[in-house]
Amino acid sequence: LHAHLVDEHAEEVKIYVDETVGKMVYELNCPLCDEGVKQPLPKRAAILEEYKREIRMVAFDLLLYHLQDIHDDSNLIQLK
Q1: Measured between alpha carbons, how far is 79 from 67 in angstroms, rounded to an integer?
Q2: Which of 29, 56, 27, 50 is nearest to 40 (CA)?
Q3: Listed residue (66, 14, 1, 60) closest to 41, CA to CA
Q4: Which of 15, 34, 44, 71 has the fewest Cβ atoms within 10 Å of its own Cβ atom?
Q5: Do residues 62 and 55 lie in contact, with contact meaning Cβ atoms separated by under 8 Å?
Q6: Taken in order 60, 21, 50, 8, is the CA torsion positive or negative?
């Protein structure tokens, strides 16, 4: 499932430099509600470029936990 999400929906995970904190971050919002995750990344942008796939996998993993914890199964059908 994680590989599918990264391969087919990678653009949903935004990876960019957040000027307010001066660090590279990843951000992913829930498609069912207003919640999302925004995490600073500990390494420099040049180093992180080679880890974008793994960063996206972590972001989608957090989204899956959110969907499982917050949204019941009937709402998950909307994602298909």
Answers
A1: 10
A2: 27
A3: 14
A4: 34
A5: no
A6: positive
In angstroms, rounded to a whole number, what is the distance separating the alpha carbons of residues 37 and 40?
10
Each residue of 51-76: pLDDT tens digit? 888 999 999 999 988 888 888 665 55
Q: Number of structural domains, the chain? A: 1
Burial 48-70 (b: 16+ CB within 10 A, else e): beeeeeebbbbbbebbeebbeee
CA distance 46 to 63: 26
Q: Could you tell me the two tokens for 57?
A: 């996998």
Q: Show Cβ contacts of residue 55 under 8 Å, excluding neighbours closer than 6 positions.
A: 13, 15, 26, 41, 48
pLDDT band (50, 70, 90) for residue 2: confident
